[in-house]
Design a protein that fits this description.
Elements (H helix, E strand, L loop, with lengths): L6 E5 L2 E6 L2 E7 L5 E5 L3 E2 L1 H9 L3 E5 L5 E5 L7 H11 L2 H25 L6 H19 L3 H19 L20 H23 L18 H24 L8 E3 L7 E3 L1 H15 L2 E3 L6 E3 H17 L12
Parallel strand pairs: 1-5, 4-6
Antiparallel strand pairs: 1-2, 2-3, 6-7, 8-9, 10-11
Length: 328
């Protein structure tokens, strides 16, 4: 819900969105998986209580798309699973195995994205493809988590160096940087990655896993490490490809960014650009795809949920190993 000044209310088992006493949306609760609030939108206490009782998370973003906080149902109803997940974090061999699969999935998808851009034919692009291929060999052989992280970082440097050759006129890109994002491309990527968090986090919670207990990303106060883990393989598939498409089709242009003069947030997307990114992202989530292991038809949103469930099965010992989603 991003209509500024709107209210989200409860009416029976329905959510009613109103503004100026007029009904904007009337949605049966059975059709709601998650509620995302952007900017100056109020959620009434009865609506919030109903959502939490039904296990539906409510995620709050600022009007500029920055994540604020999440209100979620209590995960303590699954103590055995949570205990097992915590126990697995102490198994160094298990952690390395899952982390390696996560990294190899991400790197394979980064390489595929560059290969799909091969018509640009630049030396830097080919260098990026070959560099990622070499780091994949190293990652496969890494016997230590920090070494694995080093290979992942090296692949990222190759990958985003190649992005410089993919920029349309009017945009310059000198590599991935954030906290804060120093230029329009980094601001666009950061916003889109943050948007994806709600779906990755929702899938992890739906699988009843603790989003704070990850494997590749170290345990850190307040960090959703497992969300970051599962997010890795989907960055190139869902976000990077979408961002390049927006740029190459001219849907996002330099005029869609504002230079603020603020050191904390030097550049931000316009409201129209943020709305467009959200629309294109939702379209991407609803795109049909075949689930590789089973051959079932699903969507990218369904695929995220399947990967979270697979992670749960691996943690519980019901599956032999985590297999990331790899782009073909």
């Amino acid at each position: 819900v991003r209509e500024q000044g709107a209210y989200v209310r409860q009416r029976g088992k329905r959510l009613i969105v109103t503004k100026d006493r007029k009904v904007i949306e009337d949605i049966p609760l059975i059709h709601v998986d998650q509620v995302v609030i952007e900017g100056n939108v109020q959620v009434t206490v009865p609506a919030l209580v109903m959502l939490i009782n039904e296990g539906i998370d409510v995620v709050f973003f600022s009007s500029h798309g920055r994540y604020r906080f999440r209100v979620e149902s209590d995960g303590s109803r699954h103590p055995v699973l949570r205990h097992t997940q915590f126990y697995r974090m102490g198994d160094e061999a298990f952690v390395l195995e899952v982390a390696r699969a996560i990294v190899l999935g991400k790197l394979a998808n980064q390489r595929t994205l560059l290969q799909r851009q091969a018509q640009h034919g630049s030396y830097a692009l080919q260098q990026g493809i070959e560099g990622i291929a070499q780091t994949m060999i190293g990652a496969q052989q890494a016997d230590d988590l920090e070494v694995l992280r080093g290979y992942e970082g090296r692949a990222g440097a190759y990958y985003f160096a190649a992005w410089r050759e993919l920029m349309p006129p009017g945009f310059a890109f000198h590599g991935r940087a954030f906290h804060p994002s120093p230029d329009p491309i980094n601001a666009l990527l950061s916003f889109a990655y943050t948007v994806m968090d709600k779906d990755i986090g929702g899938a992890i919670r739906k699988a009843q896993l603790d989003p704070y207990l990850g494997f590749f990303h170290a345990l850190q106060q307040g960090r959703l490490s497992l969300v970051l883990d599962l997010k890795e393989e989907f960055r190139p598939i869902l976000i990077d490809s979408m961002v390049l498409g927006l740029l190459h089709r001219g849907e996002i242009r330099p005029a869609d960014f504002e230079w603020t003069g603020n050191e904390q947030r030097p550049v931000v997307l316009s409201e129209g650009a943020r709305t467009l990114v959200l629309e294109r992202y939702e379209e991407r989530l609803q795109t049909g795809i075949v689930h590789p292991p089973t051959g079932d038809n699903t969507t990218y949103r369904g695929l995220i949920e399947r990967q979270a469930l697979l992670l749960r099965q691996v943690i519980l010992g019901e599956a032999t190993g985590y297999v990331p989603m790899v782009w073909r």
